[in-house]
Design goal:
Layout: E1 8-10, H1 12-21, E2 26-32, H2 38-49, E3 53-57, H3 59-66, E4 74-78, E5 83-85, H4 89-94, E6 101-105, H5 111-124, E7 128-132, H6 141-147, E8 156-159, H7 162-171, E9 175-179, E10 185-186, E11 196-200, H8 209-214, E12 217-220, H9 232-249
Parallel strand pairs: 2-3, 5-8, 6-7, 6-11, 7-8, 9-11, 9-12, 10-12
Antiparallel strand pairs: 1-4, 2-4
Helix pairs in contact: 1-2, 5-6, 5-9
């Protein structure tokens, strides 16, 4: 069943981020008639100044359209221009200048975790995030809100067969890095400055067996406390910023300077 909120940005922060970073994706802004929030009024005027259509509707209609999500009297209809399908992988890789830095999320289920991973990936300069179409959280309003605007700007590739895409990456010279609590190699001892995709698994179960087998090597994040593992979004951040640090120190341009946008 299709998500009725898939093409909506819901709430003040989500709409504000889109107006600031990707106004061209916004088709219309809907504001509740009963709204007296000055933050919403400011966003409404910003949309008008940008030439974006603004519609006023009863709050009850916003409640219905937002399907239970906290709308704060404002939602936006949008059309994403930063998403692609599996067939686009080759052209996306060809468009990257310098060694690719990719993130593969193998079935992250929690939308808060997914959003946090996208936010971290955008901040770390990841060129492309690869996501399975099924068995993952999907870009729900919760995930978009947690991403703090990153979900609308970072390139996203949705695939139906993750194993096939991982093999294609290997054929194109991209190394696959996975994480495991049982890996012999420490994250900080590994060479991570080349063309690389960080592969992260789902909460609890981690990577699926085939995904793990396709990785070229596995590393562990050293833990010094009593906690045995990290949340997937935190672990993603630790790994990505170590990769970014090594790429920067290797003398190349920062990964964030090498990206592409549609």
């Amino acid at each position: 069943m299709a998500d009725s909120t898939a093409n909506l940005l819901i709430g003040i922060h989500s709409v504000a981020s889109a107006l600031a970073n990707t106004p061209g994706q916004i088709k219309a802004i809907i504001v509740a008639e009963e709204c007296h929030n000055p933050r919403v009024k400011k966003l409404r005027q910003q949309a008008v100044d940008l030439g974006i259509q603004v519609v006023t509707q009863p709050r009850a209609l916003l409640e219905r359209r937002s399907d239970g999500h906290r709308h704060q009297d404002i939602i936006a209809e949008f059309s994403a221009d930063n998403t692609w399908g599996e067939k686009d992988l080759g052209k996306l890789l060809d468009a990257i200048e310098g060694p690719p830095l990719l993130l593969v999320l193998d079935g992250v289920q929690d939308p808060h975790n997914l959003g946090a991973c996208l936010r971290t990936a955008e901040a770390a300069g990841v060129h492309l995030v690869i996501l399975p179409r099924h068995r993952s959280a999907g870009l729900s309003p919760v995930a978009r809100r947690s991403a703090s605007g990153a979900a609308e700007v970072i390139p996203l590739l949705f695939v139906t067969n993750l194993a096939r895409v991982l093999r294609q990456l290997k054929e194109k010279g991209v190394w696959l890095l996975g994480t495991s609590d049982h890996a012999g190699q420490n994250l900080y001892d590994a060479e991570l400055s080349g063309p690389m995709a960080l592969v992260m698994g789902s909460e609890g179960k981690g990577m699926r067996r085939l995904t793990s087998e396709l990785c070229d090597f596995l590393v562990r994040i050293p833990m010094h406390g009593s906690v045995s593992s990290l949340n997937v979004s935190v672990a993603t951040g630790v790994c990505l910023f170590e990769m970014t640090r090594q790429r920067h120190n290797a003398g190349g341009r920062h990964a964030g300077d090498q990206g592409f946008r549609k």
